Amino acid sequence: MKMIFFSIFFLFIILDLKAEDGHELWLRKKSAVPVKVVSPKKSAILNNAVKELQQGWSGKANSTVKLTIKKDKSIKDDGFRIDGSGVTASTERGILYGVFELLRRQQTNQPVTSVVSNPSYQHRLLNHWDNLNGSVEQGFAGRSIFWRGENDLAVTENDRKLWQEYARASASVGLNGSSVNNVNASPLVLKEDALARVKGIADVLRPYGITTYLSVNFSSPVRLGGLKTSDPLDPEVIKWWQAKTKEIYALIPDFGGFLVKANSEGQPGPQDFGRTHADGANMLADLVKPYGGIVMWRAFVYSPTEKDRARQAYLEFMPFDGKFRDNVIIQVKNGPVDFQPREPFSPLFGAMKKTSVMPEVQITQEYLGRSNHLVFLSTMWEELLKSDTYQEGPGSTVARSTDGSIYNQKHTAIAGVANTGLDSTWSGHHFAQANWYAFGRLAWNNKLTSEQIADEWLRLTFANSAEGKTKAVGEEWERNFLVPAKQMMLESREAAVNYMMPLGLHHIFSPFGHYGPGPWYGPKSARPDWTSLYYHQADTAGIGFDRTKSGTNAVSQYHEPLASQFNDPATCPENYLLWFHHLPWDYKMKSGHTLWDELCLHYDKGVQQVRQFQKNWDQMQGYIDEERFSHVQSKLRRQAKDAQVWKDACLLYFQQFSRRPIPAELERPVYDLDFLQAIRPLTFFDQPQDRAATPQR
Amino acid sequence: MKMIFFSIFFLFIILDLKAEDGHELWLRKKSAVPVKVVSPKKSAILNNAVKELQQGWSGKANSTVKLTIKKDKSIKDDGFRIDGSGVTASTERGILYGVFELLRRQQTNQPVTSVVSNPSYQHRLLNHWDNLNGSVEQGFAGRSIFWRGENDLAVTENDRKLWQEYARASASVGLNGSSVNNVNASPLVLKEDALARVKGIADVLRPYGITTYLSVNFSSPVRLGGLKTSDPLDPEVIKWWQAKTKEIYALIPDFGGFLVKANSEGQPGPQDFGRTHADGANMLADLVKPYGGIVMWRAFVYSPTEKDRARQAYLEFMPFDGKFRDNVIIQVKNGPVDFQPREPFSPLFGAMKKTSVMPEVQITQEYLGRSNHLVFLSTMWEELLKSDTYQEGPGSTVARSTDGSIYNQKHTAIAGVANTGLDSTWSGHHFAQANWYAFGRLAWNNKLTSEQIADEWLRLTFANSAEGKTKAVGEEWERNFLVPAKQMMLESREAAVNYMMPLGLHHIFSPFGHYGPGPWYGPKSARPDWTSLYYHQADTAGIGFDRTKSGTNAVSQYHEPLASQFNDPATCPENYLLWFHHLPWDYKMKSGHTLWDELCLHYDKGVQQVRQFQKNWDQMQGYIDEERFSHVQSKLRRQAKDAQVWKDACLLYFQQFSRRPIPAELERPVYDLDFLQAIRPLTFFDQPQDRAATPQR
């Protein structure tokens, strides 16, 4: 009897998992409401726009939607106007984006009044750190959707189907470019057979308005072309790149251009030949210019010799402001170090006034709990975009400094390092899909609020699913699911900062996978700027990295009044405090607590926040499908465990220096420090479903 | 600079660990106050009594303490009288116990008024489950203090020193017997060279009044003697045992007798030859009788065929009540199953009216978190001793049914399965020493309260240590250390019941070491009564083992009014509810909660209790030496982790059947069920210091 019960039980689970694996993302509405669409012509992009309307229309039955392509002063680039009669745009892409906006408004219960919407950035790219062997650097959702192996390059029907789903999803949030291989680029991507596969990708992405880009290895002329040098000023080298560029454009006439990581973390670059970043970038830019291509040149550079890694990109790039071709864009990570849970914005934003500069953010959660932690990154990006650089007076936000509002950039762009993989969820965690969604939405409109984005995403992703199997969408659903789920999303990044690196702490993770805590990490054999000790500088006197004028003076890279504000602990925002200051353990915080107590309170709060997420989530059972409910429930458990590991590791480690008790009212650590120093947090709690969260495709 | 700091820091730790490793137990007072002792004669025991007075006296300087041996109607057995002038007793042992009591009163600030104290039980034994190869069954404090290996039997000076410390500690709490090898006995213990070692042990234990006993294997005549049978009625077998008995008594004239586990869990016994427990026990009893020896025959028997293991000892032994020799004592485990966190008392207590019956309790924490969890067992034993059997009317407690108050037993005795080992703490956890202490104190006086025992032990163990290095003992010390530490001890067993097996649940542990949770354990290949499924009987209808009249009728083994009280869920104490009843998940508890909710609340409460222990303990830093403080702090962390594992495992497993949510206000699980089912909880959190808690001797 008991055995029979079990069999039925498990069968139920298996059947249901197939029913809802999250693969449909936020594109779920299958409407049967008839609509008449009038399109100006047939084309791949317009056909997709028509198809979207026909399968997703939930307006008045038998309405007529007119798609109109015409010039309009108020419509810029791929922008659009929607109104009662249809969609107007000056490009086919604009029509497609307008259609997605129209459907989104219908599906999220927003009014479809007359609206003009123009993109904040011309180029809105995903950067895929996908290797040709099929692995994904910092990818936590299975293997690459683009690559299977260097010897398995033929394009299959399955490939095309998946790429098409991918392109549709990206287009639906306004993205228009994909760089399809890792910035740590293999020269082999430029081989004929690999380029044939890239053409295959481009052909599937094009009908959704997605332009294809490639990351290139600066040593390709030597390593692939057999030349003796890759010196960018060498005529043979230029010739080689010229031929390669021509070959690419012959295959992909609308190829977008190159993304380059040069002289960074061991990657080759022009400095290897005594040349400058400008020499390297300009050489490539000149070659793609005739085809309308661009070069995105990354500013993520640092060497072990300089005393403060956070200063280096600025020091290395500022001298070349104005020296780059107009089709070069300097791609700058949001913060001066490397995608930490919280960094102040990179001082390059707004400072390079004569160069196109684009922000790079990370959608994949390299430092934010991988695909195990629910961390909605939109609030982090919103914080970045709204940060005021003061470079051209108050209001010179990072957004306005990069989107053309202030500087007359030839090109405006933004890039997000993608979190896609073959996992059936695409992103490893159902809520990680929201980060892909949010990046697209912010790239389109950098003034959107995270609250609005979360609201949209939750409605699109969960309201239109599993109908008949969960409580009906309505006022109760909104109160008991939408509101608390949104609240959790909006709070989640601050929770992660709290349990990982509060008060401006950064780069104190374990060397095993950038996942768990490792504040103790600092072997003598390691590059100092790859250790945790370098960044937290904890000793019995205090903690924090002194970047003030009496320290490394990194503060001076910021425009006044920021330089002075950051320089003084009394005016420095407390969430950046230990980024800029080394302060005594009994430093008095604004709350009245000592620095040590405040640190403890933050770590503890992070743990409590995740526990509260768990409680809230469990209350939502029944309001969405059971499969995604359970999956997220399990992920939240892992997150709660990990938060405890972080709290215990950091507090017990720093307590060796602070020599102060953890405030008596706080829950005590449950791990011993030496235990935490011995384990690999990444794998310690691993279980099968962490490694393959849902069925792999 | 940082390196130098570290070196000093670690040196400090190492030096300090040596300074306080807990090896001195509760015997710490080194007093310099001079005292004059008048002893009636010189003897090994009396010399030890004099020595204790001289080194531990903290009364008035230059007092005279007179030790007097004389008959006195009010002094029974090894009892004593203490008063202003000294100690009076009728035996040398009595003098020794009186001296220890006198010193204890001085050291714990109790008045030394005229007091007569007689032991509740004549025989107060530790049972050591130590194997000849040096391992200890269910021992969690390192290897055996008695055995190193079957080929390493020579007695060394180190052996003698350790045994002497052991004997002194046992005597100080009134114990007077030690069975020095495992009840799962090797026949080899009766070989000449092993017996020579036993003589060595006995010679060291004797001066502290400790009598030596041995566990014997019932097949020894075949396996050691080379006979064809071990049938207890076979003349050759009797002859063999007779010769062996003579050999032992020649070596150890005051040898105590035999402890026998027969026909139990694969051990041989008289039933193998168609004989009865009485046949077997009486044969051995007749042989030791001339020497004044006794036989302790264990009633821990059960076979896989009977439908309810809890009924079996009673069924098997009751028919032989009155059939045993007067120097046989039936040794009965406290509960009917096996040392679970909570069991009702064994129905054999009080029921065998014509046989000497002795309780066996377990000091080592086989089912109570090993030496990782702080669980003060005194409250459990107090609960047992005060349980009313009603066998001779109200007030027929287990204590009175076994200590001679009710029945005219020839011998009264009590045994505790020891928790000693070579670990420098003796017991693996500093607080596990308190269980050794408490067992001795209750064996001496089964009316003592756990509160008094805890108070004594804490003062003796922590107040007399590390003087000058911690806050001075006094009113503040009592308020901030003694009171909360005592509270923690007194609450600790209930906390363990809460996070392991509340409401009468039992035997739902993991098969890996009786340590972690394993409610799911029930492979088809296993004996049903060795699985968890057999004991919790959870299904969608409810949970619990139906031992009512309509179930296995185990209730009928109890005397009225207990049988009726246990039989009715409305009158059954709720802490035994699921021991006796299978009840629906929505059964209404006295609290008003459903059974499911109540179960959840108990598990959660257990976790919260351990967390509160942690908070309280951390507040005590500075009131005791740093070494033991840190060690216990680390153990409490492990306990908190384990409590979470227990809670999550049991709630998530049972939730599959209850199909009800965990009450919304409770903290959510942080482990997934399939993860917990895959790990071995015993080793999952293991770290070096768990395996060798403190330096091994």
UniProtKB/TrEMBL annotation, chains A, B:
Q: Which domain of life is it from?
A: Bacteria
Q: Which InterPro entries match?
A: A-glucoronidase_C_sf, GH, Glyco_hydro_67_C, Glyco_hydro_67_cat, Hex-like_dom2
For the keyword Transport, the answer is no
- Fetch the Pfam families from UniProt: Glyco_hydro_67C (PF07477), Glyco_hydro_67M (PF07488)
Q: Where is the Glycosyl hydrolase family 67 C-terminal domain?
A: 428-665
Q: Which Gene3D superfamilies match?
A: Alpha-glucuronidase, C-terminal domain, Chitobiase/beta-hexosaminidase domain 2-like, Glycosidases
Name the UniProt key words of this record, in alphabetical order. Answer: Hydrolase
Q: Where in the numbering of this chain does the Glycosyl hydrolase family 67 catalytic domain appear?
A: 107-426
Q: PANTHER family in the record, alphabetically? A: ALPHA-GLUCURONIDASE A (PTHR39207:SF1)
Record's protein name? Alpha-glucuronidase
Please give the organism: Rufibacter sediminis
